[in-house]
Amino acid sequence: MFQFCLLSGPAASESSAPRHRKFRACFGEEGTPDEGVAAPEGTLVIWGGATSVGMAAVQFARAARVSSIIAIASSKRHEYLKILGATQSFDYNDTDVIEKVKSALQSTSGTIWAFDALGSPESQVLLKKAIPQHDRTVLASVLLGGDPEYKAIMGARRFDVEFELPGGQKVVWPKDMAAADRHWRGFRWAVENYGAPGGYVPAPVRVFEGSGEDAIKEVYNVKNMSTFGKLVLKHPLK
To answer: CA 202 to CA 189: how far, in whole Å?
Structure first.
């Protein structure tokens, strides 16, 4: 079974340690693609497919041989997402996007994995509306403390993890060594195939050079998910 194990920070770097924290791949108990096991049956649908986490999810799903991967993102990113492994893409700006995604999912055989990679209350609501009635559905999100029907995502499973959110809500992930092993297998796949043909493609990087004031604006643009790829600030700022 393909499993969600993705964790995001909006402006994390692409070095190996932050990347390991930033997103995880779980290939399920069947293992990584080269182990000669059956591919998982179902469709992965990602709201926020062109975010750094969304693009990682597309690629890990492709590596895990998920045959149907739907990305919901700006139409400007659809061709790029197809290169990464998305089999269908829909524009979240389309007034009929909910019905189009729902229609595409109607024929799903197996599990529908619905992943909110944008991480906002609004994206959780919209993604849930796009999921038709189905026997096996899994909802997951990078947002902590959102809709309780969504599984909150955590990559560090070699030890107990507990967060207390504003308002006193506690989010707990108990230690799970089997999940931790799957995380590391996925991470090793990304490292060993980093930049290789058919391997893991890092998120596009944009280098900003300018004033400190404008740099702060750029960082806020990243926070608000209004840019594509990663932002790097070139120092010294003017």
So the answer is: 13
Of 163, 128, 176, 126, nearest in space to 24 by CA: 176
Where does residue 74 rank: exposed (0-12), middle (13-18), buried (19+ CB within 10 A)? middle
pLDDT at 215 over 70: yes
Tell which residue, 22, 205, 225, 13, has the closest CA to residue 119. Answer: 225
The two tokens of residue 125 are 């609501």
Q: Is 229 exposed, middle or buried (0-12, 13-18, 19+ CB in 10 A)?
A: middle
Q: Would you give the distance in Å from CA 29 to the centre of its chain?
A: 20
Give the separation between CA 2 and CA 118, rounded to whole angstroms: 20
Domains of the chain: 42-203 (3.40.50.720), 204-237 (no CATH)
User: Which of 60, 9, 84 has the alpha carbon at shortest distance from 186?
Assistant: 60
The sign of the torsion formed by the CA atoms of 43, 44, 47, 50 equals: negative
Per-residue burial over 163-194, b if 16 or more Cβ lie within 10 Å, else e, is: eeeeeeeeeebeeeeebbebbbebbebbeebe
Tell the burial category of 29 from Cβ atoms under 10 Å away from its Cβ (0-12, 13-18, 19+). Answer: exposed
Between CA 131 and CA 112 the distance in angstroms is 8
3-state class (DSSP) for residue 105 = helix
The predicted-structure confidence for 135-159, as pLDDT tens digits, reads as follows 999 999 999 888 999 988 887 788 9
Residue 10 and residue 113: Cα distance in Å, rounded? 22
The pTM score is: 0.81
